[in-house]
Each structure stands twice: as C-alpha cells, then as structure tokens.
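Long-time lurker. I teach an intro course on protein structure, and each term I like to show students one example going from raw sequence to a predicted 3D structure in token notation. This year I'd like something fresh instead of my usual example. Would anyone be willing to generate the tokens for the chain below so I can use it in lecture? Attribution to the forum is fine with me.
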Amino acid sequence: MTTWTEFVAAAPTVSEVFRRRHSATGNLCMLGTLRTDGFPRVSPVEPRVFEGELWLIGMPGTRKFADLRRDPRFTLHTATVDTRVTEGDAKIWGTAHDVRDPALHQRFAHALFEEIGLDLRGKEFGYFPAAEILGGSCVQIVDGHLDITVWRAGGAEEVVRKD
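-- Reply from a regular --
Happy to contribute to a lecture. Here you go:
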C-alpha cells in the first residue's frame, strides 16, 4: 500500500503540484468513481492529509461513497478552471479502503475542528476511506513547454515534454 507519506517521497513533483493545487482551491477536488451501471461518476470532495494518509472525505451517505464501497477504484483530480494550466494541475488514482478505528476518527475530528471549525468530535464515523495511491500525474508549464510528469507505484517519475 502506498500511503501519502510514501507517495510524497516517491513522486515529489506530482505530490507537490497536487498539494499546491489542492490548497489553492480550499481543498476541493473532483473524485471519479464507478457507478453500479459501470459509467463514471464525478463528485466534489474535500480530501485531507492526516497522519501520513490521504483521506477521501466528504458528506456521508452520498452515492460516491457507495460506489467506493462496491468498487474501491478512484481518480482524484485537483479542481481547476485555468485552461492554460499556468498554476499546474494534478491527479492521483488508486483504491480506497475503509478504516475502522474510533480513536483515529476522533483525532481526525479534533484536527478538523481546529482547522475549519467543523465539529464532528464525539460522533461515530461511518465509512472512512483511506487512499492507497497507485499512480499520479501532473502538468506544468516549464520554460514555455508543457511538462507532463507521471508516476506509478514501484517506479520513478517520468517526464514527457510537449512543445
């Protein structure tokens, strides 16, 4: 399993662009899942990095989380409206797994309250998906060229330059 901490070490360029774009949008990303009929579903989420893991957090009881319970594959894309990608753009893909750990849930709830004031302290968490990162990519404008950096678990980042 590739945790967020391991991903940052293995894919420094992709993880930095993802972190920067994720932060710039107030943590908003678009989550791609697979519906029961096999078609893709794209939904907004506000993932969080906490204790070395990437958590796919959002409103409980929504279809996106039912999708992940049934088929854990996902794609997470940083939200952007910049068609020229002057600030870069990134995506991550992998699988999600539910973490049943009430003590972890409460530590997360306290951290979330401190960060944004949302009070989930003392509440039971239902589905709490952690991301196993299997790959990622980003695009950046570097020296007037479009650089596409791709990473897959077990490998090194590879850069393709487009003129």
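Some talking points for your students: The helical segments are 4-10, 12-24, 63-70, 102-116. Residues 4-135 form a domain with the Pnp Oxidase; Chain A fold (CATH 2.30.110.10).
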